[in-house]
Amino acid sequence: MPAMSRLERTELRQPDGRRVTLYGPHQPAPPGYQAPLAQPGIYERRWNPLRREWVLVAAARQGRTFLPVRSRCPLCPSTGEHSTEIPARAFQLAVFENRFPSLRADGDRSGRPEAVASAGVCEVVVYTPEHEGSLATLAPERVADLAEVWADRYRVLAARPDVRYVFIFENRGEAVGVTLHHPHGQVYGYPFLPPHAAAELRAGSGTGCPICAQLDRERRAAIRVLFRASAAVAYVPSFARWPYEVHVVTPAHLPCLLDLSRSARRSFALALQRVVRAYDRLFKTTMPYMMVLHQRPTDGRAHPRAHLHAEFYPLLRDRARLKYLAGSESGAGVFINDTLAEETAARLRTLMA
Amino acid sequence: MPAMSRLERTELRQPDGRRVTLYGPHQPAPPGYQAPLAQPGIYERRWNPLRREWVLVAAARQGRTFLPVRSRCPLCPSTGEHSTEIPARAFQLAVFENRFPSLRADGDRSGRPEAVASAGVCEVVVYTPEHEGSLATLAPERVADLAEVWADRYRVLAARPDVRYVFIFENRGEAVGVTLHHPHGQVYGYPFLPPHAAAELRAGSGTGCPICAQLDRERRAAIRVLFRASAAVAYVPSFARWPYEVHVVTPAHLPCLLDLSRSARRSFALALQRVVRAYDRLFKTTMPYMMVLHQRPTDGRAHPRAHLHAEFYPLLRDRARLKYLAGSESGAGVFINDTLAEETAARLRTLMA
After folding, report:
1. Which B-chain residues 136-195 have CB contacts (< 8 A) with chain A?
2. Radius of gyration of chain B (CA)
């Protein structure tokens, strides 16, 4: 695959069958490496007929690794003393199947008639061998490599018959529930079209793309645009649900990362990094956030409205206060934003390097 | 109104125009009472065309009262030294228009073309004059009174032309973002049908009620039912999204609290209290939760499928760990439950008094 030409790829298998992919140069696992093993557990999904949504049941995750001390970090390179998730003494970027997944093709089932067998996959993307830092502190070349890895994971998972939607995302910060500090993101391969993706694809009028329409509105209004790069426009959408919510959209109507050139992927990923850097300047603290990428479903249908974009949901509304999803958001589905998108955009714009 | 016959009602107005309703006997405000005043702010709503949802903008709430010390609690009775939100030296139950609302009919506007004027109302329901305690510790007669107050607020707000959906709910615990500890709940009068209510009313097949159908499935499966009372059945739904999620449903297909007899309302409210008490026993700590009531919209249409029920979303998945809404839930709309509904139901059932 041309996109991968500069980033060598090594496929490994752990004894429990989980795949590990190393991107870039690496050194083999130290002698005596002992792979961590996936635990048995119930994996299935159940249908919520009130909201017409699938709920994932993953009843082995309660024991997952929780904020380990640095010397026990499972995302660092392995050493003679400490076997991690990465069977390598050195690596650049690594992707492995999560040992505590939400989706798993071969899990046990509860046997309940309400349940459907699980399918799909959950991967962890380790951005760097360095334990400290974040997407904000990666060197530009490593950000470009990360974009290549994302594109490759989209390609690999899209080819799986049990994956109908590839969801690349990052949870950062303990306030989002992150259990590991080492810089990393995740990829879920859902066996169905998730509700939020489905809603976007239903939106818009006629054959028009709702992302293109919003981008056009934001460009014309101008007041909420943060910056324009060659392959990305960043703005606080007029309808921001989170204070300091930011969307990053490709100016061209392109459905997924594979439709961008290598240099456009680099530009897009660097735009994401720019947003994270501004977040960390905003309250002079590491902003907890979710970053999600929406791309074309991989269910074999055309989806002409699909338009690659990223959405950031930052959790802080000021230095010490979190935005909570409480009764109105969780029970009625109505978000309350205590800020004006025009004002948060103005503030973020001054923080863009 | 017959339902109110045993609970006298006193309507007051604060100098800033906000309504206060005292239920039951009370003593007037102390001399020198100084009403707190609503602050100016931007109140509007904006349309999210990607999800086809309204977002409420309430840009005066950032300064709202945040976990005051007990002597400064704004929900306690007023004294000569401390004027609270309740202009009474003594009261039983009180409802007042929130000084930091999410919806307000007379707020300022940003002037942005993307924005629509706000409408609707946000009320605070103070369960008791006692600062300590919670719904779990209220005497049965006070719980019955609370059910009457809920029914009355539904009736009063339903009569407003700008209120199309009356949403009664309670956020409890700092982990849900609660800023006041005094036992209280809230009522939102939305000027539109919220997405989750709309989804429920769209669900079901033909003219069938999806709540009746789920209740029937749960009764037949039996394994997730927690208890049955005269006017309430409580269960962990098969598709629980939160660990220990509980739904409380009226056995009869009744659209709202006003369709229940006084004794049925009492039974329904006591069932809610029973759930909260079990939650507090579960991890031997005060369980943070959201409790939401879904009832018939008040938009003048018939909504034959509407069926009164309560949903509890408790946040703890074990004594020290919260369930977070992270990338999958917030960015894709896919909930991950680390527990089996059958097992959490079994555990909760043993804790039901």
Report:
1. 165, 167, 169-171, 176-178, 186, 188, 190, 194-195
2. 20
The interaxial angle of helices B262-282 and B140-158, nearest 10 deg, is: 120
| pLDDT (0 to 100) of residue A1 | 40
A113 burial via Cβ count (<10 Å: 0-12, 13-18, 19+): exposed
Range(s) of the domain holding residue A277: 193-353
Q: Are residues B180 and B246 in the same domain?
A: no
pLDDT at residue A121 in the model: 97
Angle CA B328–B332–B333, to nearest 5:
90
The closest CB to that of A199, out of B50, B328, B336, belongs to: B50
Residue pair A247/A224 in contact by the 8 Å Cβ criterion: no
Strands A316-318 and A309-314: unpaired
Final residue of a structural domain among B148, B165, B192: B192
Which CATH number does the domain housing residue A146 bear? 3.30.428
How close is the nearest chain B Cα to the Cα of A123, in Å? 13
Task: Say yes or no to pLDDT of B179 above 80.
Answer: yes
Tokens for A1? Answer: 């695959």
CA–CA dist B107, B205 (Å, integer): 41
Q: What domain count does chain A have?
A: 2
The verdict on A82 and A230 lying in the same domain is: no
CATH of the domain at B7: 3.30.428.10
Contact B22, B9 (CB under 8 A): yes
- Cβ partners under 8 Å of residue B117, min gap 6: B43, B44, B109
Band (B69; pLDDT cuts 50, 70, 90): confident
Question: Do B45 and B182 share a domain, yes or no?
Answer: yes
In a domain, B113, yes or no: yes
Listed residue (A130, A323, A60, A12) closest to B58, CA to CA: A323
Q: Are strands B335-337 and A53-58 parallel, antiparallel or unpaired?
A: parallel
- Whether the CB of A33 is below 8 Å from some CB of chain B: the reply is no
Q: Is residue B198 part of a domain?
A: no
pLDDT recorded at residue B107: 87
pLDDT greater than 90 at residue B60: no
Question: Which residue in the list A26, A181, A182, A184 is annotated as catalytic?
Answer: A184
Task: Give CA angle at A338 (A336, A342), nearest 5°.
Answer: 110
Residue with structure tokens 């209220």?
A: B138
- Domain final residue, candidates B164, B192, B220: B192
A149 lies in a domain? yes
How far apart CA A120 and CA A166 sit, in angstroms, is 10
Q: Are strands B184-190 and B165-172 parallel, antiparallel or unpaired?
A: antiparallel
Confidence band, pLDDT 50/70/90 cuts, at residue B63: low
**How close, in Å, is residue A227 to chain B by CA atoms?**
21
Residues B19 and B149 in one domain: yes
Q: Which amino acid appears at position B300 of this protein?
A: G
A5 and A149 co-located in one domain: yes
In the annotation, is A184 catalytic? yes
In a domain, A170, yes or no: no
User: Are residues B149 and B288 located together in one domain of the fold?
Assistant: no
**Is A186 in Cβ contact with B53 (below 8 Å)?**
no
